[in-house]
Design brief:
190 residues; four-stranded antiparallel β-sheet; 2 helices; 22% strand
Length: 190
Amino acid sequence: MTTSVDGPPRRSFRIRVLQHEPDPEPIWPLPLPRPAVDAWWPGAAVVPVPEPPAPDPAVVRAARAADLAERRAIGESVGLILEVVGGRVPALRLARIAAPQVQRYAAAATHRADLRRAVGTRRPAGAATGDRVCSLRIDRPADGVAEVAAVCRFGRRVRAMACRFELLSPGRHAPGQGDARWTCVALRLG
């Protein structure tokens, strides 16, 4: 105990700093080597895992061709939606590729001042003419569903477009096979 001149006695504590370094983590080779013998059954040999078979080139080509056809169909649909939003094509043209709520949204977007092109203005010789899709990204979160993010040019302005396409039969609003086509069920412009 330490005594204080001014008041009650104070306790003094000693603090000692300990240097501690944790043990290094073991470094394992990746992948871990397989044991020659199964540890829980003495004398039993480990059965090697078979290699997956090489994909058939014809199947790979067919899958790529189908993927390219789907991408082309979705890209053409986005281009048509862009023409409707730009005011060059009537919204009724979307009847085959879009749900009714998308048709209404695209028709209402034609009246947005930031998307309208100036009529009768002359453009410089090197300027891009017309509305166009600058880039297109398609994600497939599930079978029969495609979510699209596109960057579009409206005259001199650049806007984002987000769409959701589902693989629907023409007569029904349920996923189907055969004559199903990609239908835009949601659309938003940025």
